[in-house]
Each structure stands twice: as C-alpha cells, then as structure tokens.
Amino acid sequence: MAAEVTPLARRAARGATVTAASQAARIVLQVLAVAVLARLVPPAEYGLVAMVAAVVGIGEILRDAGLSSAAMRAPELTVRQRDNLFWVNTGIGALLTAVTIAAAPLVAGFFGEPDLTGICQGLAWMFLVNGLATQHRAGLVRDMRFRALAVVEVAAPVAALAAAVVVGLHTHDHRAVVVQQVATTAAVLAGVWIAGRWVPGRPRREPGMRGFFTFGGGLLGSQLVGYGADNLATFVIGVTLGPGPLGLYNRAYQLLMRPLGQLRQPSTTVALPVLARLSEDPERFDRMLLRGQQVLALPVVLVLAVVVGASEAVVGVFLGPGWHDAAPLLALCAVAGGCQTLAYVGYWTYLARGLSGALLAYSTVTAVLKIAGVLIGSFWGVNGIAAGFAASAVLEWPLSFWWLSRVTRYPGGRLALGGLRILAQAVPAGSAAWLVTWAAAGTPAGSPGVSLLLALAAAAAVWGLCLTVPPLRRDAALLADVLRAVRGGRR
C-alpha cells in the first residue's frame, strides 16, 4: 500500500520543498517592503490606500469566482473547459475594472477623501490583469509545476518593491503603495504566461462546465462572506476614526496577516491536489491532515506567540519610530492569526471534498461572530476593534472542528488535541518573550533590536524545555521527519 502513494508523496514533497523556499523568500520580501515603505510613507497615507483596498479585495474575490480552485481540484479538465474558464475570469476582470473606474468618485465621496478617486482608479486595473493570469496560475498548480510558480511569485514582489521605493523617494505618499500593488500583479501576469506556455483558444460550448460554476459559486459565496467579515474592521475604523488610526491598524494587520496568508495559501496549493487524490482513502486522508496541521501550525503559532509577547520590539524593529501605537494591534492580530492557522486544515477538507456549499454555511456563521466582535469592540476605539476581531477568531477555532464533523468524516477530535499540544508549547514561549522584554524595558538592553533578540532566545529556551514532555517531543519529531522527507524529495 505504501508503494502506491510513493510517486504522489514524492511529488508532494518536491512541491513542499519549492513552495516552502519560495514562501520564505516572499515573507522576507513582504516584511522588508513593510519596513522600507513605512519609513517613506506616513500612517495617514497608508490609511487612504487601506480604504480603497477593502473595496478592491471584494472585487478580487468576484474576479476569481472560485474558478481557480475549481480548475485545480477537477479530476479532468479539457482544453476547451480551460479556455472557457480563462475567458470567464478575464471577462469578469474587465467588467470590474470598468465599474471600479466609474465608481471611484462615489467611493471618494463616501469616505470624504478626494485622493481616493485616483487611488481607486489606479488599483482598478488589477482586476483585468489578475483575470488574465488566473487560469495560467491554476494550470501551473494543477500540473504541480511549483518550481516555475515559485520563481514568478518571488520575482514579482522584488520588481514591485523596487518600483515602489523609487516612487516613494520622490513622493512620500500613497502613490508608492499603489505602484507596488499594480506592479506586482503585472509581473505575475507576465511570469505565469511565460511559464505556462499556453495560449487560450476562443470560448466554445463544452459539456461539463456547470460543475465548475457550481463549485466556484459556493466557494465564491463563502469567500465573500469571510472577506467582508474580516475587513469590517477596516471599514469601521475608516468611517469612524479616519485615515490615521486606520493606517496604524492596516500596517499591523499587513505586517502579520499578509505573511500568514502567503504561508497558508501556498500550503493549500500543495495540499489540495494531494488530498483530492486521497479523498477516497480515509486513513491516508486523515494522516495527511494531522501531519499538515503540525507542519503548518506548530512553527507558525510558535512565532506568533513571540510576536504577542514582544509586540513593541517587533513594531520598533520593522515599522520604526512613529508607529508605537501599532504594538497592541499587532499582538491582537497575532492571537487571531494563530487561531485561524490551527483551524486551517478544515479549509483544505472543504475544498478537497468539494463541500463548497457547506463552506458557505460555515463562513456565514463565523462572519456573524466577527461582525459582532468588531461592532462590540468599536465602543473602545481601534484597540477594542482589534480585540473583538481576535476574540471571534478564538471562538471560531473549536467551532470549525465541530461544524465540519457534521457534514463529512473528519478527525476533528485528534486535530483539536493536536492544536492544544501546539498551544502547550506556544503559550509558555510567548510568556517568556514578554517577561524578558518587560524586564529589559528602560535598560540599555531595552532597544527594539536587542529586546527582540532576547525574546527569541528566551522563547527558544522555554520551547526546548517543553520538548522534554513526550507527546510534545513526538510532535516536534514528526515535524523533523516531514522536513527530512522534503529534503529527500528535493534530491
């Protein structure tokens, strides 16, 4: 039985190797971009872009329409079906570009910020560009050409950051951020078309298209609901508190949640085609989920625990002077991100088993939690909004296991225990990071850089002590085994 899955496991290992390396590079680039541009662009200018970005994000979900995931997981995908999906994504992108350009003055009027007209019209072109790239990127994933995709996804932000820095040095305003985002999408488009070596044919009637739109529609609905709930905080802060507080929240959110997204989304890229092939083998499917949780969540949640404990040092190092008020926001975002990561394997299950309708129902329920948390927290300002967002994420983690177990066979109990074991390591490590930064405050060791190094050292020492507990040591050994398999797959 083991021999049957060896080729698939080998391809997954190679994909995980390349994806892990590319995502490490992308995260470094993302953090570098935030650190550099935060020193060129003030918080209020970031807040202006964040107001539009919340609207643009909804359009991006509409532009994809769930069809990239539908193409990646489909057992069979004909050339004509792929051509049709390309033209659907491109057509939606072109329509959204035109609508957004026309509606830009209305967005500016709603927020009372005239500069939003130009920002909105500039970012609108991302819809068309991404529409042209959607199925080419999905094709690289479906064919497990992770190396080619990794090259594109690393080269694009490098080029975009260079362009943004040039603009930022001359303008010191929001135009640098707009250029960065548009340039990234343009570079990705060029890269995936070159790597994909596919020129779409004209759209034609083809049997079997309904299944793609049915799955995509359910996924689209769940993504819209989830995105709206996640970005309600941005809307509330922008409308009630203005661009200054929104800039602080946006940089804290982007410094943390953007790199997390760059870890979680590519983990889906690797896991989805493998899980789809194992969906009829419950034992192997469960084993993949349990391993996936440890490989993804253990290192991520440990790092987030350090961010919670040493948030002021992290802000001082990566955002610099003038961003001190973002520290509690960063800590609360880290709490939310940790809980979301612990539950993320449930999302893999929905996609691999084609449960887009059930995912929509679950997303609606969790959206209500997020909306309630943000609205209640808004009575206490921007920090209260971030706290409400974090509290809803804490509640969503156990809810995700229970909800999914109602609609499909799913090892929710074992995954919950695995998550608790991860927290048993992360909470002490984060507490140690907080203790040393608190003790160093007001001393020569209290500078942001030194404090962060001390926090990392203390967290590592405490984690080492945690590994004396046999179940926790076995989880770390599993992570090490997977990493060795990844290195073996690379060879």
Automatic annotation (TrEMBL):
Subcellular location: Cell membrane
Membrane topology: Multi-pass membrane protein
Pfam families: Polysacc_synt_3 (PF13440)
Transmembrane annotation, as ranges: 86-110, 116-134, 146-170, 176-196, 208-226, 232-249, 295-320, 326-347, 359-379, 385-404, 416-437, 449-469
Assigned keywords, A-Z: Cell membrane, Membrane, Transmembrane, Transmembrane helix
Family: Belongs to the polysaccharide synthase family.
Alphabetical list of PANTHER family matching this protein: LIPOPOLYSACCHARIDE BIOSYNTHESIS PROTEIN WZXC, PST FAMILY PREDICTED COLANIC ACID TRANSPORTER
Protein's UniProt name: Lipopolysaccharide biosynthesis protein
